[in-house]
Structure formats: C-alpha cells, structure tokens
Amino acid sequence: METPTMRQRFEEYIFGLQEEIITSFETLDPNAPKFKRDSWLRAHQGGKGVSGVFFAPPPTDASPGPQTILEKAGVNISVVHGMLPPAAIKEMRADHSSIPYDEKTSLPFFAAGISLVVHPRNPHAPTVHANYRYFEISEKASEGEGTGKVVAWWFGGGSDLTPSYLYDEDARHFHTTLQNACNQHGSELYPVFKKWCDEYFYIVHRQETRGVGGLFFDDLSTEKHARLSDDVKRPRSSEEIFDFIKAVGNSFVPSYLPILERRMSMPSTDQQRRWQLLRRGRYVEFNLVYDRGTKFGLKTPSARIESILMSLPETARWEYMTDMGSDLESEEGRLMAVLKQPIDWAGLENL
User: Fold this and answer.
1) What is the pTM of this model?
2) Is the pLDDT at 351 greater than 60, yes or no?
3) How open is the CA angle 72-76-77, to the nearest 5 degrees?
4) Choosing from 124, 129, 185, 225, which is the catalytic residue?
5) Strands 47-55, 208-209: parallel, antiparallel or unpaired by DSSP?
6) CB-hemisphere CA count at 13 Å for 193?
7) Could you give the 3-state DSSP secondary structure of residue 264?
8) Three-class secondary structure of residue 316 per DSSP
9) 250: enclosing H helix or E strand
C-alpha cells in the first residue's frame, strides 16, 4: 500500500474538520435549518469542493423573523489544481526560493483549504473567522508523466474573533485556547502570529482593527521564515507543521463554542442591534478592500463567486458620521478603544 501524500492527508483532515464544526453548530441549535452542503467541481481546470452554508430565509408575510442562533455562516472547502503563471511564480519566490522560475513557463500547483465565517444573530455574540490551507508547486513533468516532483510547499491559516460588544472573559478564552494549541509546538509561535493577526486585520482607512484578533500565519515550510527565529523551537518539517496545523484547527470548536453558548440568549436592544450592523459594515469594508483571499478570488477566472463572498454578513449598516462608539465611557466606546490599541489577551489570563 502506498503511503498517502501530504495532499491526500491534508484533504482528509479538512473534510473531517468541516464535518465536526458543522455538526457542533447543528447540535447547538437543533431546531434551526441544517447547513446546506453544496458540492461542486471546478470545470475547465481541476478541483472540487464542498460549501457548508447556513442561512434562515426571512418570512414572506408579516410574521416574526427567524429566531435561530446563527444569522449566516459558511464552512467551505476547496481543493483545486492547475497551472500557475510565471507572474505568480515570480511573486512567490520572494518567500520560496526553491521554486524554479522561467518567464515563459507555468508550473503545476495544488491548493487545498478550509475557510469559515460565522455571524451569530445576537449582538452580544461575536463573529468568528478561521481558515487553514496547504499549497504545493511541482515541476513540469515530461509529456505523459503527469505532475513532476514537488519543488515547494507551505501551510498557512489562522483564526480571529470580531465582537460587537467586548467581554474580556471571551477574548481571554479565545486567545488562551489558541495560545495553548501553539505552545505545544514552540513558545514563539503565539506571540508572533498574534501580532501578525493584529497587523493583517487592520482597516487602514478607519485606523482600527477588525476585531480582537487571534492568529494569522503563512508560508510555514522548511525554508527560513521572515517572522520566526532560526534558533528557537518551531515546527520545521512537513510532519511537524502538519501537526501544528491540526492542533490549531482542532482548537476552533473549544475556542469559540463556549463563547457562543454564553452570549447567544442574552437580551438585547434595538440600539445594540444597530451597533452590531455598523460593526458588520466594517467587516465588509475589510473583506472587500484589504483581504488577500477575497481579492485573489475575485480576480481568478471562473471563480466561484458565491463561495468567495460567503464571508459577508447577511445584513450590514453604514451611517454618515455616526456618533455610536465616540463616547469612551459607553460599551461601544470601550470596544473602539481596544480596536485602536490591541491588547495582549492571553497575558491578561494570568493577572
């Protein structure tokens, strides 16, 4: 029996993780509609995927709207392959010098990932996002031989929390759960990836972060990493990095579900709903203006637009020169202060 390749093992892992996460949400709200599992194939090039999407259609008459815990959610998987053009290869060589480059030659690539976004209905329950991915580039094989040997590979991913109302215990729980997963594989990982997350999810034109952060990382491979020290413990081989990916991926449910359970039934006001929708407007701004994955997807020929825009909330709000959040003594203002100046939440756990 042949040993499974990393492609096969990662694909098997993310399909299992997708089912675990969807099942967790369906168990939490058994009376809500089930997630819609939408399988698809990538025509013309190659690949497949399964989009697991939750939505509750609004009533067609004057009856009350749905009372589900989630308002909109998606847990999506894509597994694609094809040819990477020279321009993209040239850009990737900045972090992966092992990739051969010829301005006229495309190379075979493989990319697999799981990406999820959950927008709860209650204003006190935070939105959450996570994704974990694997990318591989191979030599161009001789005619009739399929794909050549792998010349470069790397993992990336992360998870972040976006509340409308700030509860310190929620932020501490989320961060310490991620920190514990990271610390199994090296003490430098959490602080570096937490800082990277704060930098990445920054809305430049608003001068604020999207939420209270979490983890963000990319380009994890055997090669030298721009953000990690060479002389400290960290995952370096494909096996070690895959084990790290599984540790942080498996931490998603325990990092988020207890928070959702605490907040999903809290009483809320129309004003709190208004603030939630304003914060979701900021979420939309980041995703459409800055998010690399969204921008890359929208530029990709034959892209699956419904899956790319799955991350956007069902409803958002923009107000001209809104005064909500300007009073630093208010609950909204308290959140804004943290979005302007990120906090070391895991460090607060020990205070």
Assistant:
1) 0.93
2) no
3) 180
4) 129
5) unpaired
6) 29
7) coil
8) coil
9) helix 238-250
